[in-house]
Amino acid sequence: MKIVFAICICLLVSGAHEVESRSHPAPRRRPNKPLFVFGDSFVDAGNLPRYGRDVTSRGWYYPYGSSDDSHGNGATGRLSDGLVQSDLIAKILGRKESPRPYRLQQDQDEIDRSGVNFATALSGVYEVPQKVVPTLAQQISQFRSMVQDGMIDDQDLMNSVALVSISDSRDYVRVSVTASYDEFMSFVGGLTDGIADGVKQLQKLGVAKVLVNSVPPLGCAPWLTLSSNYSRCDSRINTFASIHNTLLKQKLGESQDVLLLDLYTTFSNVVESGSTVSKQFKHKYTPCCDTPDNPSGYCGQVDGNHVQYSLCQNPDKYFYWDYEHPTQAGWEAVMETLEGSIMDFLGISY
């Protein structure tokens, strides 16, 4: 019997969002901690190869990167108008940006001391069609090979930090809208098992501290608010996200070396709380880069000499850059909120 998801068990939802969030002034000194990044487009800093100009490679073309002063306002493969979450966590660790992508380091004798970014847009726990990108488990296998080959040594691992992000809803597009509740719970169970197992594998390989993203309120992403003219979130999809986060929290357990980053509450507070930060974003669910005449189009799409997208004038007034990803200003607001709890967890003094 098919069951409407909107009536999913609410007991699973309660208690899903418990990571303390607060901002702190920037510390004067930061410890030297290598950062290893795994996951999806929220944290990819250029691993997806630059193919022809299409939806897969759009992060390598204008207008992506157009707000990124640190890279000459040019596209770098990041799916935003500028920096993404991995860059801002690297800044907390005293770096200028995310560690270099794996594709630029895999054939070298040793890694950059800042770490390695293995994350790839389109990635998730489950394989994508044609296997064009590595899954989370395959990214961790790439990391394992570097450890076994001595490119990443014990000294690197001793003070290391890993960031795991399976947050951009890529896996969930596989779920049929007609799936039953049991089918959905089986799917999300396998998905959160995959994330939790990835964290355990990283710990077995010697990673000292692991940051793990929850999923944000997926129903508030512009590709889902489009149907209401960007005016309201899809509450049913947000219920799914809350169930995911509750299960993930349970499976990660109470390890002192793992911190679940509550993107659900943080995204919601940044956009909706009415705080000074929230008021910065005049456009909460509308993407800065939109394709109003073609809902199936994408930011950066060009047909011959004809641009197929519209671009806002002030990206810092928009929380979302495209149909899925925050602007640089959006990420900065999110990470400013989470910075204090991350610093406490990593033992970084002010």
Describe the protein's architecture and organization.
There is one protein chain. This protein has 350 residues and is of the alpha/beta class. It has helices at 85-92, 136-148, 154-158, 181-204, 222-225, 235-252, 263-272, 276-280, 328-346; strands spanning 35-39, 115-117, 161-165, 209-213, 258-261, 283-287, 289-290, 302-303, 306-307, 310-311, 318-320. The strands form four sheets. The chain has a five-stranded parallel sheet, sandwiched between helices. A two-stranded parallel ribbon has the order 6-11.
Question: What can be said about this structure in brief?
Answer:
30% of the residues lie in helices and 11% in strands. The protein contains nine helices and eleven strands. Helix 4 (181-204) links the parallel strand 3 (161-165) and strand 4.
Number of helices: 9
**Average pLDDT for all residues:** 89
Shape estimate:
globular
Euclidean distance between termini CA atoms: 56 Å
Give me the secondary-structure category. alpha/beta
Low-pLDDT segments: 1-29
Strand line-up of the largest beta sheet: 2-1-3-4-5
The SSE order reads: EHEHHEHEHHEHHEEEEEEH
Strand content: 5-15%
Instruction: Give the total of beta strands.
Output: 11
Largest sheet: 5 strands, parallel
